[in-house]
Amino acid sequence: MKNKSDGRRRNKSAHNEAAAGNKNGRRRRNVSVPGDCPSPKVHPQKGYNSLFRLNAMQKSGRNGATADDGDRLSNLPNDLLLNILERVDTLDAIRTCILSRQMLKLPTMLSRFYLSVSSIPGHHQKPPRVFTQREGLATNCAVAHVTDNILRTRSPKITITKLKIRFVLVKLDSLTIAKSVAHAMATQKVDAAEFEIVTEKRYNLCSSADLLRFANQFNDLFGACPHAFAGLTRLWLENMRFGKLDIPNILSTCKLLEYLRLTDCDSGIHSVLQVEHTQLVELEIDHGKFQRVELICLPKLQRLTYNNWFSYEDPMYFGFLPQLSKLSLIKTAIRLDKSLELSQLLANVPSVGDLHLDFRSEKIWVLPECPKLLTPMLSNLQHVNLDNLPEGCDLAWTMFILEAAPSLNELCITVWDHRCTMMTNKEFRKKYGYCEKADVKWKPYALDFKHKNLAKLTIYGFQTDDNFMRDITCVVEHAINITEISLYDRKVCGHCGDLDPVIKNMICPSRYPETDEERKQITEGLGLASRAVVHFRS
Protein backbone atom coordinates (compact mmCIF):
# COMPACT_ATOMS: atom_id res chain seq x y z
CA MET A 1 0.00 0.00 0.00
CA LYS A 2 2.82 2.38 0.81
CA ASN A 3 4.46 1.90 -2.58
CA LYS A 4 1.19 2.50 -4.41
CA SER A 5 0.48 5.66 -2.44
CA ASP A 6 4.00 6.94 -3.03
CA GLY A 7 3.57 6.22 -6.76
CA ARG A 8 0.32 8.14 -6.92
CA ARG A 9 1.90 11.11 -5.12
CA ARG A 10 4.87 11.09 -7.49
CA ASN A 11 2.56 10.92 -10.55
CA LYS A 12 0.43 13.77 -9.18
CA SER A 13 3.50 15.82 -8.45
CA ALA A 14 4.88 15.26 -11.95
CA HIS A 15 1.55 16.22 -13.49
CA ASN A 16 1.41 19.44 -11.42
CA GLU A 17 4.95 20.32 -12.44
CA ALA A 18 4.10 19.97 -16.13
CA ALA A 19 0.92 22.01 -15.84
CA ALA A 20 2.71 24.76 -13.91
CA GLY A 21 5.56 25.05 -16.36
CA ASN A 22 8.13 22.99 -14.45
CA LYS A 23 10.72 25.74 -14.32
CA ASN A 24 13.66 23.64 -13.19
CA GLY A 25 14.38 22.54 -16.77
CA ARG A 26 14.57 18.76 -16.39
CA ARG A 27 14.29 16.86 -19.67
CA ARG A 28 11.29 14.87 -20.82
CA ARG A 29 10.77 12.31 -23.57
CA ASN A 30 9.84 13.47 -27.04
CA VAL A 31 6.12 13.80 -27.68
CA SER A 32 5.07 13.02 -31.22
CA VAL A 33 2.18 14.74 -32.96
CA PRO A 34 0.04 12.58 -35.27
CA GLY A 35 0.28 13.47 -38.92
CA ASP A 36 -2.38 13.80 -41.56
CA CYS A 37 -3.62 10.22 -41.62
CA PRO A 38 -6.99 8.44 -41.40
CA SER A 39 -8.65 9.21 -38.08
CA PRO A 40 -8.42 6.33 -35.61
CA LYS A 41 -11.04 5.62 -32.97
CA VAL A 42 -10.10 7.88 -30.08
CA HIS A 43 -11.88 8.02 -26.73
CA PRO A 44 -13.03 11.66 -26.45
CA GLN A 45 -11.84 12.17 -22.88
CA LYS A 46 -8.50 10.46 -23.49
CA GLY A 47 -8.08 12.47 -26.67
CA TYR A 48 -8.66 15.70 -24.78
CA ASN A 49 -6.28 14.74 -21.99
CA SER A 50 -3.58 13.95 -24.53
CA LEU A 51 -4.04 17.31 -26.22
CA PHE A 52 -4.03 19.10 -22.88
CA ARG A 53 -0.81 17.41 -21.77
CA LEU A 54 0.77 18.05 -25.16
CA ASN A 55 -0.06 21.72 -25.04
CA ALA A 56 1.09 22.05 -21.42
CA MET A 57 4.41 20.41 -22.17
CA GLN A 58 4.95 22.49 -25.30
CA LYS A 59 4.32 25.66 -23.27
CA SER A 60 6.64 24.52 -20.54
CA GLY A 61 9.58 24.52 -22.94
CA ARG A 62 10.38 20.82 -22.38
CA ASN A 63 12.28 18.50 -24.69
CA GLY A 64 15.18 20.84 -25.10
CA ALA A 65 13.03 23.82 -26.05
CA THR A 66 14.07 27.35 -25.17
CA ALA A 67 11.90 30.25 -24.13
CA ASP A 68 12.06 31.58 -27.70
CA ASP A 69 10.40 28.43 -29.10
CA GLY A 70 7.01 29.49 -27.71
CA ASP A 71 3.94 27.26 -28.01
CA ARG A 72 4.84 24.54 -30.51
CA LEU A 73 1.34 23.08 -30.73
CA SER A 74 -0.19 26.44 -31.66
CA ASN A 75 2.51 26.99 -34.27
CA LEU A 76 1.58 23.88 -36.21
CA PRO A 77 -0.21 24.47 -39.56
CA ASN A 78 -3.96 24.93 -39.25
CA ASP A 79 -4.76 21.91 -41.39
CA LEU A 80 -2.72 19.66 -39.09
CA LEU A 81 -4.27 21.18 -35.97
CA LEU A 82 -7.76 20.70 -37.40
CA ASN A 83 -6.90 17.11 -38.25
CA ILE A 84 -6.02 16.54 -34.58
CA LEU A 85 -8.95 18.45 -33.11
CA GLU A 86 -11.55 16.70 -35.28
CA ARG A 87 -10.61 13.34 -33.73
CA VAL A 88 -11.98 14.20 -30.29
CA ASP A 89 -15.19 15.43 -28.70
CA THR A 90 -15.82 19.00 -29.90
CA LEU A 91 -16.22 20.28 -26.33
CA ASP A 92 -12.76 18.93 -25.55
CA ALA A 93 -11.36 20.44 -28.73
CA ILE A 94 -12.72 23.85 -27.70
CA ARG A 95 -11.19 23.53 -24.23
CA THR A 96 -7.87 22.76 -25.88
CA CYS A 97 -8.11 25.79 -28.16
CA ILE A 98 -8.75 28.06 -25.18
CA LEU A 99 -5.21 27.28 -23.98
CA SER A 100 -3.75 29.24 -26.89
CA ARG A 101 -4.66 32.60 -28.38
CA GLN A 102 -3.53 31.46 -31.82
CA MET A 103 -5.96 28.50 -31.71
CA LEU A 104 -9.09 30.39 -30.66
CA LYS A 105 -10.28 30.73 -34.27
CA LEU A 106 -10.00 27.00 -35.04
CA PRO A 107 -13.40 25.81 -33.67
CA THR A 108 -15.18 27.85 -36.36
CA MET A 109 -13.06 26.10 -39.01
CA LEU A 110 -13.87 22.52 -37.98
CA SER A 111 -15.62 20.33 -40.53
CA ARG A 112 -16.45 17.48 -38.14
CA PHE A 113 -18.39 17.94 -34.90
CA TYR A 114 -19.12 15.49 -32.10
CA LEU A 115 -21.02 16.99 -29.17
CA SER A 116 -22.11 14.59 -26.46
CA VAL A 117 -23.48 14.31 -22.93
CA SER A 118 -21.77 10.93 -22.55
CA SER A 119 -18.96 12.52 -20.53
CA ILE A 120 -21.33 12.61 -17.52
CA PRO A 121 -19.65 10.41 -14.90
CA GLY A 122 -21.49 7.15 -14.49
CA HIS A 123 -23.92 7.61 -17.39
CA HIS A 124 -22.74 4.38 -19.06
CA GLN A 125 -22.04 2.56 -15.80
CA LYS A 126 -24.12 -0.07 -14.05
CA PRO A 127 -26.38 -0.17 -12.13
CA PRO A 128 -28.71 2.16 -14.10
CA ARG A 129 -29.46 5.47 -12.49
CA VAL A 130 -31.35 8.70 -13.02
CA PHE A 131 -29.81 11.93 -14.27
CA THR A 132 -29.88 14.51 -11.52
CA GLN A 133 -31.42 17.84 -12.43
CA ARG A 134 -28.05 19.52 -12.07
CA GLU A 135 -26.33 17.08 -14.42
CA GLY A 136 -29.09 17.29 -17.00
CA LEU A 137 -29.13 21.09 -17.04
CA ALA A 138 -25.35 21.53 -16.93
CA THR A 139 -24.41 19.07 -19.65
CA ASN A 140 -27.29 19.74 -22.00
CA CYS A 141 -26.90 23.47 -21.57
CA ALA A 142 -23.22 23.20 -22.54
CA VAL A 143 -23.98 21.04 -25.57
CA ALA A 144 -26.83 23.35 -26.66
CA HIS A 145 -24.76 26.52 -26.20
CA VAL A 146 -21.74 25.19 -28.09
CA THR A 147 -23.91 23.80 -30.89
CA ASP A 148 -25.72 27.09 -31.36
CA ASN A 149 -22.60 29.23 -31.04
CA ILE A 150 -20.41 27.25 -33.45
CA LEU A 151 -23.00 26.51 -36.12
CA ARG A 152 -24.10 30.15 -36.28
CA THR A 153 -20.61 31.68 -36.34
CA ARG A 154 -18.60 29.29 -38.49
CA SER A 155 -17.78 29.99 -42.10
CA PRO A 156 -20.50 28.66 -44.46
CA LYS A 157 -17.79 28.09 -47.08
CA ILE A 158 -16.45 25.07 -45.12
CA THR A 159 -18.55 21.94 -45.64
CA ILE A 160 -19.69 20.11 -42.52
CA THR A 161 -18.65 16.56 -43.36
CA LYS A 162 -20.08 15.08 -40.14
CA LEU A 163 -22.25 16.48 -37.37
CA LYS A 164 -23.06 14.15 -34.47
CA ILE A 165 -24.90 15.33 -31.37
CA ARG A 166 -25.89 13.21 -28.39
CA PHE A 167 -28.21 15.04 -26.00
CA VAL A 168 -30.75 14.53 -23.24
CA LEU A 169 -34.39 15.13 -24.12
CA VAL A 170 -34.81 18.32 -22.07
CA LYS A 171 -37.22 20.81 -23.66
CA LEU A 172 -35.36 24.12 -23.95
CA ASP A 173 -31.90 22.71 -24.66
CA SER A 174 -33.22 20.16 -27.15
CA LEU A 175 -35.10 22.91 -28.98
CA THR A 176 -31.97 25.06 -29.13
CA ILE A 177 -29.97 22.18 -30.59
CA ALA A 178 -32.59 21.27 -33.18
CA LYS A 179 -33.10 24.89 -34.30
CA SER A 180 -29.34 25.43 -34.61
CA VAL A 181 -28.96 22.31 -36.74
CA ALA A 182 -31.96 23.28 -38.88
CA HIS A 183 -30.41 26.71 -39.49
CA ALA A 184 -27.07 25.14 -40.42
CA MET A 185 -28.76 22.78 -42.85
CA ALA A 186 -30.56 25.72 -44.48
CA THR A 187 -27.49 27.98 -44.77
CA GLN A 188 -24.54 25.59 -45.07
CA LYS A 189 -23.60 22.34 -46.75
CA VAL A 190 -23.99 19.39 -44.35
CA ASP A 191 -22.96 15.99 -45.69
CA ALA A 192 -23.98 13.85 -42.71
CA ALA A 193 -25.90 14.69 -39.53
CA GLU A 194 -26.74 12.45 -36.59
CA PHE A 195 -28.86 12.74 -33.45
CA GLU A 196 -28.60 10.38 -30.48
CA ILE A 197 -31.42 11.30 -28.10
CA VAL A 198 -31.40 9.87 -24.58
CA THR A 199 -33.89 10.38 -21.77
CA GLU A 200 -33.61 11.51 -18.17
CA LYS A 201 -34.18 7.95 -16.92
CA ARG A 202 -32.77 4.63 -17.96
CA TYR A 203 -35.28 2.07 -19.17
CA ASN A 204 -34.99 -0.06 -16.01
CA LEU A 205 -36.28 2.89 -14.01
CA CYS A 206 -39.03 3.91 -16.43
CA SER A 207 -42.73 3.32 -15.88
CA SER A 208 -45.19 3.08 -18.78
CA ALA A 209 -46.14 6.68 -18.03
CA ASP A 210 -42.48 7.72 -18.38
CA LEU A 211 -42.21 6.04 -21.79
CA LEU A 212 -45.33 7.82 -23.00
CA ARG A 213 -44.09 11.15 -21.60
CA PHE A 214 -40.72 10.84 -23.33
CA ALA A 215 -42.41 10.01 -26.64
CA ASN A 216 -44.64 13.09 -26.28
CA GLN A 217 -41.59 15.24 -25.54
CA PHE A 218 -39.91 13.91 -28.65
CA ASN A 219 -43.02 14.51 -30.78
CA ASP A 220 -43.12 18.13 -29.57
CA LEU A 221 -39.47 18.59 -30.56
CA PHE A 222 -40.03 16.82 -33.85
CA GLY A 223 -43.04 18.99 -34.66
CA ALA A 224 -41.23 22.20 -33.74
CA CYS A 225 -38.16 21.47 -35.92
CA PRO A 226 -39.12 19.10 -38.75
CA HIS A 227 -36.41 20.53 -41.02
CA ALA A 228 -33.65 19.46 -38.62
CA PHE A 229 -34.89 15.87 -38.68
CA ALA A 230 -35.54 15.96 -42.42
CA GLY A 231 -31.80 16.48 -42.96
CA LEU A 232 -30.58 13.72 -40.63
CA THR A 233 -28.72 10.71 -42.01
CA ARG A 234 -28.60 8.84 -38.67
CA LEU A 235 -31.00 8.74 -35.71
CA TRP A 236 -30.95 6.83 -32.42
CA LEU A 237 -33.92 7.03 -30.04
CA GLU A 238 -34.23 5.49 -26.58
CA ASN A 239 -37.01 4.76 -24.09
CA MET A 240 -40.14 5.98 -25.89
CA ARG A 241 -43.64 4.53 -26.33
CA PHE A 242 -45.10 6.12 -29.45
CA GLY A 243 -48.56 6.27 -30.91
CA LYS A 244 -49.46 3.94 -33.76
CA LEU A 245 -48.58 6.41 -36.54
CA ASP A 246 -45.64 8.20 -34.90
CA ILE A 247 -42.77 6.00 -36.15
CA PRO A 248 -44.12 5.91 -39.75
CA ASN A 249 -44.40 9.70 -39.54
CA ILE A 250 -40.77 9.97 -38.39
CA LEU A 251 -39.64 7.79 -41.28
CA SER A 252 -41.65 9.73 -43.85
CA THR A 253 -40.17 13.04 -42.62
CA CYS A 254 -36.57 11.83 -42.30
CA LYS A 255 -36.19 11.16 -46.00
CA LEU A 256 -32.37 11.15 -45.96
CA LEU A 257 -32.12 8.66 -43.09
CA GLU A 258 -29.56 5.91 -43.68
CA TYR A 259 -29.33 4.53 -40.15
CA LEU A 260 -32.07 4.11 -37.53
CA ARG A 261 -31.74 2.58 -34.08
CA LEU A 262 -34.66 2.13 -31.69
CA THR A 263 -33.70 1.10 -28.16
CA ASP A 264 -36.58 0.18 -25.82
CA CYS A 265 -38.99 1.92 -28.14
CA ASP A 266 -42.37 0.64 -29.36
CA SER A 267 -45.91 1.71 -30.21
CA GLY A 268 -47.47 -0.08 -27.28
CA ILE A 269 -47.33 -3.64 -25.95
CA HIS A 270 -47.96 -6.22 -28.71
CA SER A 271 -47.97 -3.50 -31.37
CA VAL A 272 -46.97 -4.12 -35.00
CA LEU A 273 -44.33 -1.92 -36.59
CA GLN A 274 -44.36 -1.50 -40.36
CA VAL A 275 -41.24 -0.01 -41.90
CA GLU A 276 -40.92 1.54 -45.36
CA HIS A 277 -38.10 3.84 -46.43
CA THR A 278 -36.22 4.46 -49.66
CA GLN A 279 -32.78 5.35 -48.23
CA LEU A 280 -32.39 3.30 -45.05
CA VAL A 281 -29.19 1.20 -45.14
CA GLU A 282 -29.03 -0.05 -41.55
CA LEU A 283 -31.72 -0.76 -38.95
CA GLU A 284 -31.21 -1.79 -35.31
CA ILE A 285 -34.02 -2.65 -32.91
CA ASP A 286 -33.13 -3.27 -29.27
CA HIS A 287 -35.86 -4.77 -27.09
CA GLY A 288 -39.21 -3.00 -27.24
CA LYS A 289 -42.60 -4.67 -26.94
CA PHE A 290 -43.41 -5.21 -30.61
CA GLN A 291 -45.44 -8.27 -31.44
CA ARG A 292 -44.04 -8.17 -34.94
CA VAL A 293 -41.80 -5.98 -37.09
CA GLU A 294 -42.77 -5.93 -40.75
CA LEU A 295 -40.13 -4.66 -43.14
CA ILE A 296 -42.36 -3.87 -46.08
CA CYS A 297 -40.15 -2.07 -48.59
CA LEU A 298 -36.52 -1.15 -47.88
CA PRO A 299 -34.72 -1.27 -51.23
CA LYS A 300 -31.34 -0.12 -49.83
CA LEU A 301 -31.30 -1.95 -46.48
CA GLN A 302 -28.05 -3.90 -46.09
CA ARG A 303 -27.67 -4.51 -42.33
CA LEU A 304 -30.31 -5.51 -39.81
CA THR A 305 -30.01 -6.23 -36.08
CA TYR A 306 -32.88 -7.32 -33.84
CA ASN A 307 -32.00 -7.73 -30.17
CA ASN A 308 -34.41 -9.56 -27.82
CA TRP A 309 -37.85 -9.45 -29.39
CA PHE A 310 -40.94 -9.67 -27.22
CA SER A 311 -43.10 -11.88 -29.42
CA TYR A 312 -43.69 -15.59 -28.88
CA GLU A 313 -44.22 -15.99 -32.63
CA ASP A 314 -42.03 -15.19 -35.62
CA PRO A 315 -40.72 -11.73 -34.71
CA MET A 316 -40.22 -10.39 -38.22
CA TYR A 317 -41.63 -10.33 -41.70
CA PHE A 318 -39.29 -9.61 -44.60
CA GLY A 319 -40.86 -7.95 -47.61
CA PHE A 320 -38.85 -6.27 -50.38
CA LEU A 321 -35.24 -6.14 -49.15
CA PRO A 322 -33.14 -6.95 -52.21
CA GLN A 323 -29.81 -5.78 -50.71
CA LEU A 324 -30.00 -7.25 -47.21
CA SER A 325 -26.60 -8.88 -46.71
CA LYS A 326 -25.95 -8.90 -42.95
CA LEU A 327 -28.48 -10.17 -40.42
CA SER A 328 -27.93 -10.30 -36.65
CA LEU A 329 -30.51 -11.88 -34.34
CA ILE A 330 -29.97 -11.81 -30.57
CA LYS A 331 -32.32 -13.44 -28.10
CA THR A 332 -32.42 -14.58 -24.47
CA ALA A 333 -35.06 -17.23 -24.96
CA ILE A 334 -37.29 -18.93 -22.40
CA ARG A 335 -39.36 -22.09 -22.63
CA LEU A 336 -42.40 -20.42 -24.24
CA ASP A 337 -40.41 -18.74 -27.02
CA LYS A 338 -40.93 -20.24 -30.44
CA SER A 339 -37.96 -21.86 -32.14
CA LEU A 340 -37.44 -20.17 -35.50
CA GLU A 341 -37.31 -21.99 -38.80
CA LEU A 342 -34.87 -20.12 -41.00
CA SER A 343 -36.47 -21.50 -44.16
CA GLN A 344 -39.65 -19.57 -43.32
CA LEU A 345 -38.08 -16.50 -41.74
CA LEU A 346 -35.62 -15.89 -44.60
CA ALA A 347 -37.87 -16.96 -47.46
CA ASN A 348 -37.77 -13.51 -49.10
CA VAL A 349 -34.14 -12.62 -48.37
CA PRO A 350 -31.80 -15.12 -50.07
CA SER A 351 -29.21 -12.31 -50.39
CA VAL A 352 -27.97 -12.70 -46.78
CA GLY A 353 -24.24 -13.41 -46.80
CA ASP A 354 -23.37 -12.78 -43.15
CA LEU A 355 -25.50 -14.34 -40.39
CA HIS A 356 -25.01 -13.73 -36.67
CA LEU A 357 -27.12 -15.64 -34.13
CA ASP A 358 -26.56 -14.85 -30.43
CA PHE A 359 -28.23 -17.16 -27.90
CA ARG A 360 -27.08 -15.29 -24.75
CA SER A 361 -26.08 -18.59 -23.06
CA GLU A 362 -29.69 -19.77 -22.93
CA LYS A 363 -32.13 -21.79 -25.05
CA ILE A 364 -31.19 -22.59 -28.66
CA TRP A 365 -34.02 -20.92 -30.59
CA VAL A 366 -33.39 -22.15 -34.13
CA LEU A 367 -34.44 -25.52 -35.50
CA PRO A 368 -32.19 -27.73 -37.65
CA GLU A 369 -33.87 -28.15 -41.03
CA CYS A 370 -33.65 -30.26 -44.16
CA PRO A 371 -31.05 -28.86 -46.59
CA LYS A 372 -33.54 -29.09 -49.47
CA LEU A 373 -35.81 -26.62 -47.68
CA LEU A 374 -33.08 -24.33 -46.40
CA THR A 375 -30.50 -24.19 -49.21
CA PRO A 376 -32.48 -21.71 -51.37
CA MET A 377 -32.39 -19.21 -48.46
CA LEU A 378 -28.73 -19.80 -47.54
CA SER A 379 -27.24 -20.16 -50.99
CA ASN A 380 -25.29 -16.88 -50.68
CA LEU A 381 -24.27 -17.33 -47.05
CA GLN A 382 -20.49 -16.95 -46.57
CA HIS A 383 -19.98 -16.09 -42.89
CA VAL A 384 -21.83 -17.51 -39.87
CA ASN A 385 -21.27 -16.54 -36.25
CA LEU A 386 -23.08 -18.67 -33.63
CA ASP A 387 -22.52 -16.71 -30.45
CA ASN A 388 -22.90 -17.55 -26.74
CA LEU A 389 -24.02 -21.16 -27.04
CA PRO A 390 -24.62 -22.67 -23.59
CA GLU A 391 -21.81 -24.81 -22.23
CA GLY A 392 -22.32 -28.56 -22.03
CA CYS A 393 -24.71 -28.86 -24.98
CA ASP A 394 -23.98 -31.02 -27.98
CA LEU A 395 -22.67 -28.92 -30.85
CA ALA A 396 -23.51 -31.37 -33.61
CA TRP A 397 -26.71 -29.47 -34.50
CA THR A 398 -24.61 -26.62 -35.92
CA MET A 399 -23.81 -28.89 -38.87
CA PHE A 400 -27.25 -28.32 -40.39
CA ILE A 401 -26.07 -24.88 -41.53
CA LEU A 402 -23.00 -26.41 -43.15
CA GLU A 403 -25.22 -28.85 -45.02
CA ALA A 404 -27.55 -26.11 -46.27
CA ALA A 405 -25.02 -23.35 -47.12
CA PRO A 406 -22.76 -24.49 -49.98
CA SER A 407 -20.96 -21.11 -50.23
CA LEU A 408 -20.08 -20.91 -46.54
CA ASN A 409 -16.45 -19.83 -46.14
CA GLU A 410 -16.10 -19.15 -42.41
CA LEU A 411 -17.84 -20.58 -39.34
CA CYS A 412 -17.30 -19.10 -35.88
CA ILE A 413 -18.75 -20.71 -32.73
CA THR A 414 -18.59 -19.24 -29.23
CA VAL A 415 -19.48 -21.47 -26.27
CA TRP A 416 -19.88 -19.50 -23.05
CA ASP A 417 -22.01 -19.50 -19.95
CA HIS A 418 -21.66 -15.79 -19.40
CA ARG A 419 -22.65 -15.48 -15.76
CA CYS A 420 -22.57 -11.67 -15.82
CA THR A 421 -25.61 -11.58 -18.08
CA MET A 422 -27.37 -14.84 -17.16
CA MET A 423 -30.14 -15.20 -14.62
CA THR A 424 -28.58 -17.53 -12.04
CA ASN A 425 -31.24 -17.67 -9.28
CA LYS A 426 -32.93 -21.06 -9.54
CA GLU A 427 -36.28 -19.89 -8.23
CA PHE A 428 -36.32 -16.95 -10.60
CA ARG A 429 -35.43 -19.15 -13.57
CA LYS A 430 -38.20 -21.58 -12.70
CA LYS A 431 -40.80 -18.86 -12.16
CA TYR A 432 -40.12 -17.08 -15.46
CA GLY A 433 -39.65 -20.14 -17.65
CA TYR A 434 -35.91 -20.23 -18.21
CA CYS A 435 -34.83 -23.57 -19.64
CA GLU A 436 -32.44 -26.08 -18.24
CA LYS A 437 -29.83 -27.09 -20.75
CA ALA A 438 -31.19 -29.43 -23.39
CA ASP A 439 -29.52 -30.70 -26.53
CA VAL A 440 -30.90 -29.85 -29.94
CA LYS A 441 -31.43 -33.00 -31.96
CA TRP A 442 -29.89 -33.25 -35.43
CA LYS A 443 -29.19 -36.07 -37.83
CA PRO A 444 -27.37 -35.60 -41.14
CA TYR A 445 -29.61 -35.91 -44.17
CA ALA A 446 -26.67 -37.11 -46.25
CA LEU A 447 -24.03 -39.05 -44.35
CA ASP A 448 -21.41 -38.54 -47.05
CA PHE A 449 -22.06 -34.91 -47.97
CA LYS A 450 -18.95 -32.88 -48.78
CA HIS A 451 -18.52 -29.14 -48.34
CA LYS A 452 -15.97 -27.61 -50.69
CA ASN A 453 -15.84 -23.94 -49.64
CA LEU A 454 -15.46 -23.87 -45.84
CA ALA A 455 -11.89 -22.70 -45.21
CA LYS A 456 -11.92 -21.49 -41.61
CA LEU A 457 -13.40 -22.79 -38.36
CA THR A 458 -13.03 -20.69 -35.20
CA ILE A 459 -14.13 -21.86 -31.75
CA TYR A 460 -14.12 -19.69 -28.62
CA GLY A 461 -14.48 -21.53 -25.34
CA PHE A 462 -12.75 -24.71 -26.53
CA GLN A 463 -12.29 -27.35 -23.81
CA THR A 464 -10.66 -30.76 -23.94
CA ASP A 465 -13.80 -32.87 -23.88
CA ASP A 466 -15.57 -35.25 -26.23
CA ASN A 467 -18.21 -32.71 -27.20
CA PHE A 468 -15.75 -30.34 -28.85
CA MET A 469 -13.63 -33.11 -30.32
CA ARG A 470 -16.66 -34.74 -31.94
CA ASP A 471 -17.82 -31.45 -33.42
CA ILE A 472 -14.44 -30.53 -34.89
CA THR A 473 -13.95 -34.04 -36.27
CA CYS A 474 -17.39 -33.90 -37.87
CA VAL A 475 -16.63 -30.56 -39.53
CA VAL A 476 -13.26 -31.79 -40.81
CA GLU A 477 -14.77 -34.96 -42.26
CA HIS A 478 -17.24 -33.00 -44.37
CA ALA A 479 -15.33 -29.75 -45.07
CA ILE A 480 -12.70 -31.26 -47.33
CA ASN A 481 -10.86 -28.00 -48.12
CA ILE A 482 -10.59 -26.50 -44.64
CA THR A 483 -7.24 -24.77 -44.12
CA GLU A 484 -7.46 -23.22 -40.65
CA ILE A 485 -8.90 -24.24 -37.29
CA SER A 486 -8.44 -21.63 -34.55
CA LEU A 487 -9.16 -22.67 -30.96
CA TYR A 488 -9.50 -20.14 -28.12
CA ASP A 489 -10.10 -20.48 -24.40
CA ARG A 490 -13.27 -19.12 -22.80
CA LYS A 491 -14.00 -15.45 -23.22
CA VAL A 492 -13.79 -13.21 -20.16
CA CYS A 493 -15.44 -9.80 -19.87
CA GLY A 494 -14.41 -6.92 -17.64
CA HIS A 495 -17.14 -7.68 -15.09
CA CYS A 496 -16.48 -11.41 -14.67
CA GLY A 497 -14.00 -10.75 -11.87
CA ASP A 498 -16.69 -8.97 -9.84
CA LEU A 499 -19.04 -11.96 -9.67
CA ASP A 500 -20.41 -13.14 -6.36
CA PRO A 501 -18.18 -15.90 -4.91
CA VAL A 502 -21.17 -18.26 -4.87
CA ILE A 503 -21.62 -17.78 -8.64
CA LYS A 504 -17.88 -18.11 -9.23
CA ASN A 505 -17.93 -21.51 -7.56
CA MET A 506 -20.50 -22.65 -10.13
CA ILE A 507 -18.05 -22.07 -12.96
CA CYS A 508 -16.05 -25.16 -13.89
CA PRO A 509 -12.30 -24.61 -14.17
CA SER A 510 -11.08 -24.21 -17.72
CA ARG A 511 -9.68 -27.26 -19.45
CA TYR A 512 -8.08 -25.42 -22.31
CA PRO A 513 -4.84 -27.13 -23.37
CA GLU A 514 -1.86 -25.07 -22.25
CA THR A 515 1.17 -27.32 -22.81
CA ASP A 516 2.68 -28.41 -26.12
CA GLU A 517 2.09 -32.04 -25.21
CA GLU A 518 -1.64 -31.48 -24.59
CA ARG A 519 -2.00 -29.62 -27.86
CA LYS A 520 -0.12 -32.31 -29.76
CA GLN A 521 -2.48 -34.99 -28.42
CA ILE A 522 -5.52 -32.97 -29.47
CA THR A 523 -4.17 -32.38 -32.96
CA GLU A 524 -3.37 -36.06 -33.40
CA GLY A 525 -6.78 -37.00 -32.01
CA LEU A 526 -8.43 -35.02 -34.79
CA GLY A 527 -6.68 -37.16 -37.38
CA LEU A 528 -5.60 -34.25 -39.56
CA ALA A 529 -3.02 -34.75 -42.25
CA SER A 530 -1.20 -31.56 -41.28
CA ARG A 531 -0.70 -30.20 -37.76
CA ALA A 532 -0.27 -26.69 -39.15
CA VAL A 533 -4.01 -26.42 -39.77
CA VAL A 534 -4.78 -26.23 -36.02
CA HIS A 535 -3.89 -23.05 -34.13
CA PHE A 536 -4.22 -22.63 -30.37
CA ARG A 537 -4.79 -18.94 -29.89
CA SER A 538 -4.20 -16.93 -26.75
In short:
By secondary structure, the protein is an alpha/beta fold. This is F-box domain-containing protein.
Describe this structure in words.
InterPro entries: F-box-like_dom_sf, F-box_dom, F-box_plant, LRR_At1g61320_AtMIF1, LRR_dom_sf. By secondary structure, the protein is an alpha/beta fold. It has a domain of 182 residues. It has 16 helices and 17 strands. The strands form two sheets. A 14-stranded parallel sheet has the order 1-2-3-4-5-7-9-11-12-13-14-15-16-17. Helix 10 links the parallel strand 11 and strand 12. The longest helix has 21 residues. The two termini are 32 Å apart.
Draw up the topology in text.
Layout: H1 2-20, H2 44-59, H3 78-85, H4 90-98, E1 112-116, H5 133-153, E2 162-168, H6 171-187, E3 193-198, H7 208-224, H8 226-230, E4 234-241, H9 246-253, E5 259-266, E6 271-276, E7 282-286, E8 290-297, E9 303-307, E10 316-320, E11 326-330, H10 342-345, E12 354-358, H11 371-378, E13 383-389, H12 399-404, E14 410-415, H13 426-431, E15 456-460, H14 466-478, E16 484-488, H15 501-504, H16 516-525, E17 534-536
Parallel strand pairs: 1-2, 2-3, 3-4, 4-5, 5-7, 6-8, 7-9, 8-10, 9-11, 11-12, 12-13, 13-14, 14-15, 15-16, 16-17
Keywords:
about 550 residues; 14-stranded parallel beta sheet; disordered N terminus; alpha/beta; globular; 16 helices; 3-stranded parallel beta sheet
Please give the order of strands in the largest beta sheet.
1-2-3-4-5-7-9-11-12-13-14-15-16-17
**Based on CA inertia axes, which overall geometry fits?**
globular
Proportion of helical residues: 25-40%
Query: Averaged pLDDT, please?
Result: 83
What structural class do the secondary elements suggest? alpha/beta
- Number of E-type strands: 17
How many strands, which pairing sense, and closed or not: the largest β-sheet?
14 strands, parallel
